[in-house]
Amino acid sequence: MENKELLVKDSCWMQNIQDTPIVLSTRVRLARNLAGASFPHILGAEGGKEVEKKISDTFGETVVSGEQFTYLSLGVLNPLERRILVEKHLISPDLANGKEFSGVALTDSHKVSVMVNEEDHLRIQVLMPGFNLSESLALAKETDEKMESKLDFAFKEKFGYLTACPTNVGTGLRISVMIHLPALVMTNQVQQVLGALTHIGLAVRGLYGEGSRALGNVFQISNQVTLGKSEEDTLAYLETMTGQIAERESQARQDLWKEVGVMLQDKVWRARGTLEHARLLSGDEVIGLLSEDRMGVEMGILPKVQAGFASLLVNSSYGCLQYRIDRPLDGNYADFERANYIRGVYHTKD
Amino acid sequence: MENKELLVKDSCWMQNIQDTPIVLSTRVRLARNLAGASFPHILGAEGGKEVEKKISDTFGETVVSGEQFTYLSLGVLNPLERRILVEKHLISPDLANGKEFSGVALTDSHKVSVMVNEEDHLRIQVLMPGFNLSESLALAKETDEKMESKLDFAFKEKFGYLTACPTNVGTGLRISVMIHLPALVMTNQVQQVLGALTHIGLAVRGLYGEGSRALGNVFQISNQVTLGKSEEDTLAYLETMTGQIAERESQARQDLWKEVGVMLQDKVWRARGTLEHARLLSGDEVIGLLSEDRMGVEMGILPKVQAGFASLLVNSSYGCLQYRIDRPLDGNYADFERANYIRGVYHTKD
């Protein structure tokens, strides 16, 4: 697959999964390091080059879930291509801004991505649409085992896998879900519901990770600690908590419907009207409108849209938009092209 | 024609006149009083009753432009029916709130309405769609002559027709146009353009007459003085000034199109989207949206709508809405029914 083709396509996790509303996607990540090499932040150029080569050489022979990897060294990616990978959650902003001798290996479906020389030598990541913890973990472990059969990972019996940051020591596992909570936001319950999570070992972030605002009422919830917990415990805990939050969101939607049904209909239909007809849409505005529209569809108020919420969110973000248009989008042009893109999806014949 | 049928129908002036954008309607009014009777404000009950009878008796035999009159005494009209007549500009708010022994005679098309015992014994009014001064004046004069053939009007050779308020003495003529100036409002030129008019003998008012705000960017422009001016002079003057203002509006639209074309398209298309889909529309909001939509249609940006701007403005106002629905519209219900009405017109199949 050509690099452009690989970058421009929708990632598997962006698919429209109608049977799991509220939970948009599931991510499982394993942190791994090579035995006998310093962690990336103290590795230096020579060591970095060596580690990158050692790891990237293995991708050619690795097949997971029937798919091969393409390895993209950061050096061959221009800033826009890096940005797209961030917008699709395939690499971290840190890797995008990062040093030489780092890169990412992607399967064609983007289900599995492996970052090389980010905070750890390897960050194996599985991204799936919907609420899909077991399958995601199984695929991450399959990838881990296949990599480990060719590489010697730093591991101590007492601690587990060694990692650059102590919070990842142990299983090196982080599980996160992306969850869409518009009704909890509208009813001012979201602080209370999500605030409680930080006291019980979970982290809450916005759509684009640490420090990012909760654009479009999308939140990422993940486990904080790995040491001393089994993979199964971590998974079961996150599964339970996510289920409870989704239930609260679902309840808040039913309450809104009962108490202010017409106002809710008005709100989501106005969002639909603007998406269908606007000629200029800023990035912030479109995310808010898409969030309302998605809730309207899930509640049966609005007709379905062909493209999924996650696909629309990502594809209307600046990098993806510019990459498809293939020229710089200054001033109003990004808002103009974003509105064009959205109108195309909403099949407006204006 | 039944009263309900007469009240609920669109008045002739509310028709969609595509060939005269900007100027929505033309109104010509003649103030007349009966010789030998006090002006209405000092007339008293006995005299009022007598004047009303004398005038209303003549309507049965009067035909103007092939149409007969129906006389509605204020006493037979409930508050909602009075309100509708005000919303359709067929009677003044003063008459609606007024005393016994007053009323209005209407032709079936509502082109001609004659108020009885308002400020003067008779207020003959002609309301036509578009920019239609000569025809309106001719019809007012035809009505005046037919009434005068049966009634003795107070007239002095030196002054002309005598009226309760000195500003109307002379021809008793007031000509006004309703003019839609969204581009002058958007470009902040409207104060300058209309402000100048008050220094040259013209009055500027909002959509519903004296003291009313310029809802929907609609203004009424009329002559102030009648004494010492011929009907033809008054007409020619207002015709020239109206033409100039319409030209300024037209120029402002072209400038907007050249300078901020996409933003303009965005604005009017968003208005269309909201009109098509909203479930709740307040009276103030709908007037603003209809104004933007109308400009978009006139500029060829938006597809045409079946109903005209004036018809939509009037029919979405509270009284007309409630009269059609035929039950009290409390709380959100008026906004709900207004949105239903508008969606019906915009043919949305939601």
UniProtKB/TrEMBL annotation, chains A, B:
Positions annotated to bind ATP: 25-29, 89, 123, 174-178, 205-210
Keywords, comma-separated and alphabetical: ATP-binding, Kinase, Nucleotide-binding, Transferase
Name of one Pfam family that matches: ATP-gua_Ptrans
Annotated ranges, domain Phosphagen kinase C-terminal: 22-252
Coiled-coil intervals: none
Superkingdom, natural source: Bacteria
GO molecular-function terms, A-Z: ATP binding; creatine kinase activity; protein arginine kinase activity
InterPro entries listed in its UniProt record: Arg_Kinase, ATP-guanido_PTrfase, ATP-guanido_PTrfase_AS, ATP-guanido_PTrfase_cat, Gln_synth/guanido_kin_cat_dom
Enzyme nomenclature, EC number: 2.7.14.1
Catalytic activity, as annotated: L-arginyl-[protein] + ATP = N(omega)-phospho-L-arginyl-[protein] + ADP + H(+)
PROSITE patterns hit by this protein: PHOSPHAGEN_KINASE, PHOSPHAGEN_KINASE_C
Annotated Gene Ontology cellular component terms: extracellular space
GO process terms (BP): phosphocreatine biosynthetic process
Protein family membership: Belongs to the ATP:guanido phosphotransferase family.
Cross-referenced PANTHER family: ARGININE KINASE 1-RELATED, ARGININE OR CREATINE KINASE
NCBIfam families: PRK01059.1-4 (NF002194)
HAMAP family, alphabetized: Prot_Arg_kinase
Described purpose of this protein according to its UniProt entry: Catalyzes the specific phosphorylation of arginine residues in proteins.
Protein name from the UniProt record: Protein-arginine kinase
Protein species of origin: Syntrophobotulus glycolicus (strain DSM 8271 / FlGlyR)
Classification of source organism: Bacteria, Bacillati, Bacillota, Clostridia, Eubacteriales
